[in-house]
TrEMBL record:
Its cofactor is Mg(2+). Gene3D superfamilies: ApbE-like domains. This is FAD:protein FMN transferase. GO terms for molecular function: metal ion binding; transferase activity. The lineage of its organism: unclassified sequences, metagenomes, ecological metagenomes. It catalyses: L-threonyl-[protein] + FAD = FMN-L-threonyl-[protein] + AMP + H(+). Keywords: FAD, Flavoprotein, Magnesium, Metal-binding, Transferase. Its EC number is 2.7.1.180. It holds the Pfam family ApbE. The keyword Disulfide bond does not apply.
Amino acid sequence: MSVFMKRRRLIKLMAASGLGGLMSFDVQAFDRQPEPELYEWHGFALGAEVSLQLYHTDGGDARRIIQNAVKIIDDMEGLFSLYRQDSVLSRLNRLGAIDNPPADFIDLLQTSHRISRMTSGAFDVTVQPLWQFYKAYFSSPNREKPPLPNALRALQDKIGYDKLHISRARVAFDHTGMAVTLNGIAQGYATDRVADYLKSEGMTSVLVDIGEYRALGPQADQTPWRIGLMDPVRTGQFSDILEITNGAVATSSGQGDAFDERGIYHHLFDPHSGKSANRYLSVTVMAPETTLADALSTAFSAMPAAAIKDCLKDLPLVNARLTDKAGAVIMV
């Protein structure tokens, strides 16, 4: 499923040739360092298409580094995947508790807990029972419309980040039937773990995409990485192009995983009401690290703009781009 590809920066080389012509050749060229080339890997992990792009002057070393990075991605999937029955997360949801969980698993749950407090509960990893409820409800041919309020109220005992107990020795639920989803933060966390490794290898021109984006430095020609934001109103078109040289970008939209044809019921939930969050068509967050950007894009989907602005007072390096239901863009 995964392939290595090497691609020369042909546009850059053609531009240099056009500017310098034949006169750009001189004897000093024999002493110059090799030009970095772009190496890419593409695969599938944590429910999304993923890719790595890095510039390196040594193809063999680039492949070694990418193989190690892919191993990290595989390890993260073994911890956080809802699709793998043998993952640590799936075991927690099945058993209700696990002893001696791996350090990365604890780290992400504790980070999730901090962001839950930061967003007054708008980010909550214990909303998985809501997804299970809506999935079953909309799969039933005899369902009533809309979902019965008392059915949602019956789930409230199973929802709440404070009902998930986390320690280095044990993770456990308060109630039977609780379940965790890390889909609103795990991709960002995996992206940061890979980025940390690439940084330790001295990589300075990298773009990691594990569902969300993280850049380490510009491209080799010093131009920024360009990331297109899909327009939630005009299908197949971009609403904006972001240019980044360092930092992270994450986007959340209910259009990505809807239960009904109209897209009113989808995977982005307001943990307080149990309903899908429909304040915005999409939310994009730019932050220094992808874990935070990923989680906040999820949380902000359920928060009014004023509450988002208040949340960001203590996060001066974080910005949010909200597209409201009329298609208007609000920058926070």
